[in-house]
Amino acid sequence: MKEKKSPAPPEKTPRWAEGAYEKAGTGEGLSTTPHITPLFSFSRIGIIAGNTFMHLMRMKIFYFLLVFVLIWLGLNIFKLPHTAGPESVGAEELRLLKAPLVGTMKLFAIIIGIVATALLIPRDVEDRTLYTILAKPVPRLDYLLGKLFGVLLLILAGLFVMTLLLDAVLAYRTQIILSDFEQVGRVLVEQQQWSQKDFDGAKVELLSHGVTWSLQAAILVIFFEAAIIAALALLVSTFSTSTLFTVVISTLVYFIGNFIADGLDHFRSSSGIGEGTLNELAAKVLFAPFPDYRPFKISDEVIAGQIFPPDILGSLALSTGLYVGLYVVLSWFIFTRKEI
Amino acid sequence: MSDTPAVQVKSLVKDFRGAFGRGMIRAVNDVSFEIASGEVYGLIGPNGSGKSTTMKALLGLVTPTAGICSIFGRDSTKVDSRQEVGFLPENPYFYKHLSGEETIRFYGKLCGMKGAVLRERTLELLKLVGLEDARKRRLGGYSKGMLQRIGLAQALVQDPRLLILDEPTAGVDPIGSRQIRDLIFKLKDRGFTVFLCSHLLEQVQEVCDRVGIIHKGSLVREGRLDDLIAIEDQTEIVLRNATPELLKRIHALAANEEGVELVRSGNPRTTLERLFLRETIQRDSGKLNPVQAIWEQREGDSK
To answer: Higher model confidence: residue A289 or residue A139?
Structure first.
């Protein structure tokens, strides 16, 4: 019978193979201390989040910034028509500059929140990358949180870069418009067509459309919205078998979330039921899994020139935390039982 | 030698739900086996026989319907058991955006490694699998054989005691396949426990100490390879430079012996794979490479 013979070792054996694992078969030189893997580890979540961020970056997602720049250039070339009177023409111009740019930022955040998250888990399963990750001492919660935080990091970085551009453009335009406004305004005051009070009021309105803390807070609220939708997409992707299904369901839930409060108001007024009744409670329970986005519409009002009430930011952050937490726990519950 | 087996699968049953939750499909049916520390074990069977499901149950990727799987005495449904395991799935793709070096570093970090230790380990593993020159290239540009080798490197990154390989040479050309098999030999020499699933029987025969044959979810045969494949009532004698006269005398001796039958005589054949390796490698380099040299030496020793 042919006898098998193992090959001679290579010329230079790697150190790690010469050490403990020379004795692996005998059990010598190996730690017998039982490893205890914590339920979740910040460093491991950070590693997965960093890898997810880099993965999405190398998918050239930041080309979206080009769209942002193109819109800005377009707004400079083609001036949008406005119908404001002379007292608020400057403010109107700034609002028309700001609204499409902030709209693009919101679009970026929502699209990335849904699509990037929906893409990650099904692709890892399809490529069998998930097997190699979960075959390492990686708890499934770490994997989910890492993926979610990677997407959120990308959205945050994207919004940060776009906010810098927006602020720079807005500050520059505000300066030019303010200088024109002051020249024209002073003439109007001198000609007594405007009182000093009118002039000051119009100036305050103009400046409220420039770079303000309210605008920065409104952009942060856009991030909150995106975080909720990303967590929701993560939940859907734990039981969905395709990216398309996750994208469609998450988008649908996002739209429902935008109209849920109005829908409940309509339900109340059309059925004539009062607050606190059993029917109203049933309707609330029915719509409970859908995030209510109405409080987040404050960002649209800030773009229209309103001042962001600082006390709302805390409650919106808390609300975001609760929704994200709820969706992550549900995702974890499903994903732990998932047969991969 | 440690008494705790590297792998213990006891009465494993795995059922999957049918389409739309109707009915149950039994993928693995009451499978039990053990792999001793330092052993190379091959689980063979046709497609859909339950090999991969058994592996996944061992790695905690699927939950057993019944039975127990453990790795070095630790319940394999617990994350801790994976400290000791390296896994290479069938046709792995990994993250295409990462380079070979970044891939190993990523998996090393997942196992809690960092700093100079990880850097050193990464370079050593790249050398071990012969991908030092391609370490900066993104995996999107790797061939299947290179992906399998980087897969082996990531499986080894945390110095596991057990290596689980699912069809490690699937889709790889004969040269790449030979290189991977040679790596398994190296690991075997260094005392690693290897659990290998394959339907390439020649490969399993070459590297495994023990095998199990799984069919329709049940383990139908299991034992030492040499015992399983030996034909008990036959004896093989291989001669070099035998003259026709000597062969005639041997034939005559066998014919005169009562109850003895000469079943076959002639020139032993090499395999098509060995012929292919010899022809392609020799044509390319004009000399034998180390892998082939090892093989030639082994062939010579067995003659």
So the answer is: A139
Q: Which two tokens stand for residue B196?
A: 């290998």
Taking domain B39-49+79-229, whether its CATH number is 3.10.129.10 is answered by no
B30: left (phi over 0), alpha (psi -120 to 50) or beta: left
- Long-range CB contacts for residues A81-90, cutoff 8 Å, separation at least 24: A86/A184, A86/A188, A87/A194, A87/A198, A87/A202, A88/A202, A88/A205, A88/A206, A90/A177, A90/A178, A90/A180, A90/A181, A90/A202, A90/A206
| A interface test, pick of B154, B190, B225 with most A CB neighbours within 10 Å | B190
Residue ranges of the domains in chain A?
A: 39-337
Flag if A24 and B97 touch (Cβ within 8 Å): no
Portions of chain B given CATH number 3.40.50.300: 39-49+79-229
Counted across chains A and B, CB pairs separated by less than 8 A come out at 163
**Per the CB < 8 Å rule, is B89 touching A131?**
yes
DSSP line for B238-291: --SS--HHHHHHHHHHHHHSTT------SPPP--HHHHHHHHHHHHHHSS--HH
Q: What is the pTM of this model?
A: 0.80
pLDDT over threshold 70, residue A3: no
Q: Taking CA atoms, what residue in B is nearest to A141?
A: B79
Reported as type and span, the H/E element at residue B222 is strand B218-224
For residue A21, is pLDDT > 90? no
- DSSP 8-state symbol, B27: E
Find the angle CA(B295)-CA(B301)-CA(B303) to the nearest 5 degrees. 105
